[in-house]
Write a structure and sequence with these properties.
It is found in: Periplasm. The protein is of the alpha+beta class and 248 residues long. The chain contains 2 helices and 12 strands; from the N terminus they run H-H-E-E-E-E-E-E-E-E-E-E-E-E.
């Protein structure tokens, strides 16, 4: 096969144009990749963002009494834009609910004009009275029957007790198994038909008498009691084991 000079020149020009286009595309791709790599956050920058979000939660959210609060920031996409901020990162959140299991924290660098929203997982643990040995209905609770364990409060949302002293001498209202967390509804600090001490407080003076509880009650609950001397039925608040306080 033979080609004329014109044909050969046309082929060469076409090949050159195709090569030039491929070359330009390659250069463009490399430039984009290089720019993307430069703008992406480094591992240290991501760790700084996560740490700032966690520290904000620990410092802002109310800790459970006698317990602890743990905050764990979620993974962050390394493709985000971030820099080594010239000043400490600014953190804020629209939620401060201590019972929430997740809170989103806004981490910002004002000088370099960037911001990242970071979800943070909360784990709140606190002391709760736990049953050591099985309890039968009507059984009085002794110090040997219970202990205090640290419990994940996010999972346990019922009303329990944080100290053993709050339940010693109370009666079990049902059969309870070892290992269970003792709930407010499981016991009666003052039980129905039980003889109780009535403390009447008026103008700083306290008068003590005996009575009979007409309903079950736990700490802080208001129940009806009958004064054994006057047979008068009054309402008082459970203030201790077999004790009801009435404020006039």
């Amino acid at each position: 096969m033979t080609y004329s000079k014109t044909s050969l020149c046309s082929i060469s020009i076409t090949n050159c144009r195709a090569f030039y286009k491929k070359f330009c595309k390659s250069i463009g791709f490399l430039f984009f990749f290089f720019s993307f790599s430069v703008l992406s956050a480094t591992e240290n920058q991501i760790q700084a963002i996560q740490q700032s979000a966690e520290e904000y939660i620990v410092a802002t959210i109310e800790w459970p009494m006698g317990g602890k609060l743990e905050a764990t920031a979620a993974n962050i996409d390394s493709r985000i834009f971030a820099t080594d901020c010239p000043s400490p990162l600014n953190t804020s959140s629209s939620s401060t609910n201590p019972s929430a299991s997740n809170i989103t924290v806004l981490v910002e660098c004002f000088e370099d004009n960037w911001r990242v929203y970071v979800p943070v997982r909360l784990v709140r643990s606190g002391p709760q009275v736990t049953i050591v040995s099985p309890l039968s209905r009507g059984q009085l609770i002794s110090p040997h029957d219970v202990t205090v364990s640290m419990v994940d409060l996010q999972r346990f949302r019922r009303q329990g007790f944080s100290s053993i002293e709050a339940v010693i001498g109370a009666k079990a209202k049902k059969n309870l198994r070892a290992g269970e967390i003792l709930e407010d509804r499981d016991i009666c600090v003052v039980c129905r038909n039980e003889t109780v001490t009535i403390k009447a407080i008026k103008s700083g003076m306290t008068i003590t008498t005996k009575g009979v509880a007409l309903t079950d009650g736990s700490h802080g609950e208001q129940i009806r009691v009958k004064n054994s001397k006057s047979n008068r039925i009054i309402e008082g608040r459970v203030s201790g084991i077999s004790e009801v306080t009435v404020v006039f």
